[in-house]
Amino acid sequence: MDCAPEAFNTTIENGQGRKQRQSKETTGLRKEIVFVFKAFLGKIFAVLVKHIIPLMLTITDNILLLLENEDGIFVADQNEYINSVLAGAVLLDLSLSGRIDTDLNSLIVLDETPMGNVLMDRVLSEINAHSKSADTEHWIETLASSRSLPIQELALASLAQSGAVEQKDRNILWLFRSRTFQTTDLDSKEDIKVQIKDVVLSDNIPNPADAAIACLVDACGLLPEILSDSQIKQCQPRMKILRRLDLIGREVINRIASIERRQILKIRAQTARRQKANFVLSIIGCLFAVATLLSPRVPIPNQFGPTLLEYLWNDSLWQQWTGYLLLGFTLVGLLIVIVLKNRLLTRFGNYSTWQLTHILLGFVCVLTLFLHTGFRLGANLNTALMLFYLVALIAGALAGILIGGSSELRKWGVPVTKKMRMAPVKTHIVFLLPLPALLVVHILIVYLY
Amino acid sequence: MLGISKKFIFIWSWFLVTLIAIVIVGVWMTVGGNRELLLVGQTTDAHHQIEVACETCHKAPIFSRPAAAVKAMNKACRTCHEDELAKSDDSHPRKKFRNPRMAQFWDKLDARLCTTCHTEHRPEITRESAVTVAMNFCIACHSEGDQDVRLIRTSHADLSFDTCASSGCHNYHDNRVLYSDFLVKHAQTDWLTQRPVHELTRQARLAYNSEDERLMHHDAQAPSAALSNPAILRDWADSAHAINAINCTSCHAPAIANGSDSAGVETVWEDKPSQKICADCHKFEQNTFRKGRHGMRQHPKIANPRDIDGKLNSYGLAHITPSFIKEWFSDPAVPMYMTVAEARLPMRSEAADLSVGCGSCHDPHSVNVAYAAVDACLTCHDDMHSEAYRKSPHYTLWLAEVAGEASLGTGVSCATCHMAKVERRGNLVTDHNQNDILRPNEKMIRPVCLDCHGLKFALDSLADDELIKRNFRGRADVHVESIEWALLREREKQDD
């Protein structure tokens, strides 16, 4: 163990990234005072207090803050990769605080004194309670996959406790509970980025905590959010040095890197497969939707007697079945968008899984629409319903083609920009808006007349 | 602003707009308003004239059970078409299929319901005579057991069921000229009868020529201003009205004519009397006109617009509802007259703005039936059959009759075939429901064609679509074997 406990806390003071050691009581006190000032003396005073009493952030906190996107930080149960990074970060935090030490074959507890941080204390007691000696890789894997110790939730709770983020709970459609964490101080994230830039682009000797954060950020694949492509290339020799600076850091980073390599390969392969499936499904769906719009209807057989086509387009019971199936698929497709947008149900699949499911449902909708209509556009309001639905499906399929096929299209010399991707997505949404009203009217007409 | 995000405003605005749209359409459906936008498909020919009066057919209350709705709808069919079916001696009457012994056929083709074969708003599957099942539907009942026509009629052994309803063979409802005995009875007639005269038309023309009670110019009762128009006076004096002692006041001042008003003619004179005045004397014509496609918008069974005022009154909202809201949620009334532009048959573009009432064909003063019988029709109709009429032998005969060169009743005008003369309570009147003897076209044979032509000739001619388009100029290229098969069956019966 070659780093002093004093180096544990990375704090950002007055927006300048200055590091200081602070006691755990300071965090609670700061939070209380900020609350009082917010409530009684207004925002100006609260801001002043924030600047006077510095915000304390651990390595784990820094990593979490960098994971924030425009909707906040989400808890994603099944993201083993993020869990592994966080587990490594916690072990680094414990190591830097002098609570644990590691060598090549084992990880041992040096000091059992609780740190006052929910996550750290739980992890420490877990390691301490373990009778057999185990190495760092074992602990990273154990902590990353432990159900009894949900590392992301605890890390976020700890971050919320520090006052750096605010927990927001929402009920979506009375079905889903969504929990996000949003930074209370936008400067903190920027400060971390500046600090990491300093570490990886300068030639100064960094302290172990800075080096560990930089390496973990690199392991998380978050460097492109902080540095430009040329800067990333430029900092590679420096990153090699940083990885060698600290034994435990190196150990953790190596372990993470091995998991990362394994997982990245797996995720990349999975993502590539799904994107390809998105691309192919979207193309077929788009063609079918365009065919529905332009093709002449499939005629009902001009022969008396039951036939499948006769049942499909002339039998009220079958029409109801196909109609309600279509409605069901559409609603499930909509629910999946909510799941995607709010990172819900992550235990059943990650973002790309739900994205593929959404596109698959769109494709199924096109097929069911054919079963329901046989390329018929209907009359009056029913025509309006069909046209809006078809344009929405076509736009959705185009979005699927552009998103799923971006790498393919790039190969063919068609670069897909964000603006290009968003145009069909927006069209998809706009043309879906009148559907509820038209659909209710469609159903009312059928049943009331 | 007020801490409300744009997303929140957008979602709630969308939700409100959706809700308002649903409420508006819901009110149209349940209370009142124009529902043309809600039509799920084009209405069948003729019915399209009354499609804004949904309750004419959709008689059941709006939240009725489906079975009750279907029952009410079928009752509505019978309300207007039952007389026609009774007159046609319906071969498949509803009462036959209501018998539980026919239950075995209900699943195949429920002939108790008109809507089984005639579904509205399904233009894709709507065939001739508004039939919406495949034309081989006879297979449902006549392909097995003791009903299997291929076994009980040797002549039908190799026939497929899609030929049953071919012209000159069978109709589902009206088989008055297609049943075996009739075919056998008229089997040996020549193509032209010995005396090719339409007897009822001849008699009707003779009645017009009666001079017993004829009124002259000086008998006209009208205000001096009206009398000053010599053309009108001359038209009237030469008309059937004058011949039958119908004076000007009979139409323009009925109160004077029937003696219920002793005031001066000027005070009660109406320059343009309504159609009701015509109907006072021509009740049968009016009744049949309302049943035909020309005047069906005046059919008495067409539903009235829903009573929005009554509904608002019942909720105590009548006095606070702005008039534009009432207007928006009021049912459109079915116009009294159909315009030519609304017709679905080919019509002359220059006649598009004309509407169809008594005065459209019958000049109110000259009441020239010769004009009404041909020229009035050709003012609007522009299909191939109408176009070809003036080149047809029928028209030549008509010209000869009108010119006085041929006997009365020998000419064949449009009205001779499409608005036949019928005898009713001792009077000869004109059936103004042209559909009575038009579709299926075999309906025309008995009351019209057989006066001049043999059955075989008539069957063949009416089965030849091209000949119909040429308005019967030439001979039929189609031969219907019905008569031969009827004779064959007769022989088989005798052999047995």
Description of the structure:
The complex is a heterodimer of chains A (449) and B (496). By secondary structure, chain A is mainly alpha-helical. Chain A has two domains: 58-245, Orthogonal Bundle (yeast vps74-n-term truncation variant fold); 268-448. Chain A has helices spanning 24-41, 43-52, 59-66, 80-96, 118-129, 136-145, 151-162, 186-201, 208-220, 223-226, 229-245, 247-294, 308-314, 316-341, 351-373, 381-404, 406-411, 418-432, 435-448, and strands at 10-12, 55-57, 73-74, 100-102, 107-109, 165-172, 176-183. In chain A, the strands form three sheets. Chain A has a three-stranded antiparallel sheet. Chain B has a domain at 199-293 and 340-452. Chain B contains 26 helices and two strands. In chain B, a hairpin with a 2-residue loop joins β1 (421-424) and β2 (427-430). The chains are: A mainly alpha (449), B mainly alpha (496).
Q: Using DSSP, what is the number of strands of chain A?
A: 7
Summarize the largest interface: chains and residue counts: A-B, 26 and 32 residues
Rg over alpha carbons of chain A:
27 Å
| Topology pattern of chain A, helix = H, strand = E | EHHEHEHEEHHHEEHHHHHHHHHHHH
DSSP summary: helix tally of chain A: 19
Could you give the count of β-strands of chain B?
Answer: 2
Task: Give a short account of the largest sheet of chain B.
Answer: 2 strands, antiparallel
Specify the number of helices of chain B.
26
Helix content of chain B: 40-55%
Distance between the termini of chain B: 100 Å
Strand content of chain B: under 5%
Please give the radius of gyration of chain B in angstroms. Answer: 28 Å
Alpha-beta content class of chain B: mainly alpha
Primary descriptors:
heterodimer, A: 449 residues, mainly alpha, yeast vps74-n-term truncation variant fold, 2 domains, two-stranded antiparallel ribbon, 7 strands, disordered N terminus, B: 496 residues
